[in-house]
Amino acid sequence: MVGERAAQGHGQDNSDLFLGQDRAHSARMYDYYLGGKTNYAVDREAARAVIRLFPAIQTVARVNRAYMHRAARYMAQQGVWQFIDVGTGIPTAPNLHEVVQEVAPDSRVVYIDNDPIVLVYADELLAGTPEGRTGFVQADATDPEAVLAAVKEKGIVDFGRPVGLSLHALLHFVPDDQEPYDIVRSFMDRLPRGSFLSLTHCTGDFAPEAWQAIIDTYVQRGTPAQVRTRAEVLGFFEQLELVDPGLVPAHQWRPEVGSGPGVVDDRLVSLYAGVARKL
C-alpha cells in the first residue's frame, strides 16, 4: 500500500531518529516501492511481503506520485500559490514545491510528516525558488487543529487566501475509529473559500481479496490500515465541488503523456484520486 503519512519538525533534537527501527513504517515502505534507499531491513521485509501479495503495488506508488505532480500543477494553474502537504514522506524529486514553483515561482509550501528519518532529508524540502518559501513542521494528521496551528506559526501560509491541501496516500492509514471524515472536514472548515482538496486513497474495489491480504499484512506489522470503496472515498469530498473528471482511478485523472507508468488497468492501480474546490 502507498504510504505518505503525517508529521515531524525540522531543526529539533535527532535523538529519536533511530527509534522504531524494529517496526515497518508506511512511509519507508513507500520509499522502497518507488525504488528508494531510505528504508530499513524491517521496511524492506514488510514491503516484499506486500509485493508478493500484489506485485502491482509498485505501480500503485508510481501512479500516486505522477498524480500528485498533475494535481499540484493543476491547482497552481488555477491561481493557488500556497500549499499544505500532510503526509509528505521521504523526499522524492520532484517534490511538490518544485512542481508548483515551475508554474508560479512565488508559491509557498509547508510539509508535514511523522517519520523521524524524514527530518534528516528535510533540507531537500526547503530549497525552493528565491521568490517562494517552503517549511517543514511537526503535527499529527489526526489533529487538524494542531497541524494548522503549527503551520500558522511558520508564517508561510496566508489563511486569508486559498490553500491547496494535499492528503495523498494518507487516509487509508486512518481507520474509521479515528474519524477520518471528521478529520478532512475539520481541515477544510479552517481553510478559506476557493481552497482545494487533493487526495488519493487505496481501494479494494478491483481486487478485494488481494487488498484484504495487504491490509492484514500492514496491521500485523503494527500499521492500522483500511481500504475504502469509491462511494466511501467520495464521502471525503462532501460539500466540496469536484473538478473534472471527478473521482476516478488515479491514472485516469487528467492523464499526460509521459506522466507515470505506461498503460495500466484499474485493477493494477487500485487507487482513487480527485481534486475538489471549496465554494
Summarize the structure.
The chain has helices spanning 26-33, 41-53, 57-77, 96-103, 116-120, 123-126, 144-154, 180-189, 208-220, 230-234, 266-269; strands spanning 82-86, 108-112, 133-137, 164-168, 196-202, 241-242, 248-249, 271-277.
Write the CATH homologous superfamily. Answer: Vaccinia Virus protein VP39
Share of residues in helices: 25-40%
Question: How would you describe the shape?
Answer: globular
**CATH class call:** Alpha Beta
How many separate domains?
1
The Cα radius of gyration reads: 17 Å
Terminal CA distance reads: 32 Å
By DSSP (H or I, 4+ residues per run), the number of helices equals 11
Largest sheet geometry = 8 strands, mixed
- What's the total count of β strands? 8
Mean pLDDT: 89
Strand content: 5-15%
CATH architecture: 3-Layer(aba) Sandwich
Structural class: alpha/beta
Under CATH, the topology is which?
A: Rossmann fold
